[in-house]
């Protein structure tokens, strides 16, 4: 039986590393993605308020380069205001992370809305 040696690194040591070996695979630290903490309910509410301020730009259906640049600028402004608010407990988030949180919430609302419509239709079919 082979024994494995486990070493615990301090945050300072990890910050100085360019790559590490995990389970026999070399991981490049400069391209590795680190997961942020989940948003609290209050943070999600605050994010919704910020997104509503930029809703016209963010939900624009055009797909041209100018619109894409405007959308990215709007999301960056949302991320900057979100991080600068001082109300965030879960740490700093990038604009792409906040965009994904908003998209996930939107998808959940759409699914719940569709389920509600299906429930109403089934009630109507059962009673009719």
List the helices and strands and how they pair.
Blueprint: H1 11-16, E1 19-22, E2 25-28, H2 41-53, H3 55-58, H4 65-84, H5 95-127
Antiparallel strand pairs: 1-2
Please state roughly what percent of the residues sit in beta strands, choosing from under 5%, 5-15%, 15-25%, 25-35%, 35-45% or over 45%: 5-15%
Beta-strand segment tally: 2
Give, in order, the helices and strands: HEEHHHH
Q: Averaged pLDDT, please?
A: 76
Instruction: Profile the largest sheet.
Output: 2 strands, antiparallel
Spatial strand order of the main sheet:
1-2
Q: Oligomer, anyone?
A: single chain
> Any idea what the shape is?
extended
Q: Counting H and I runs of at least 4 residues, what is the number of helices?
A: 5
Distance between the termini: 70 Å
Helical content, roughly? Answer: 55-70%
What's the gyration radius in Å? 22 Å
Derived from helix and strand composition plus strand pairing, the structural class reads mainly alpha
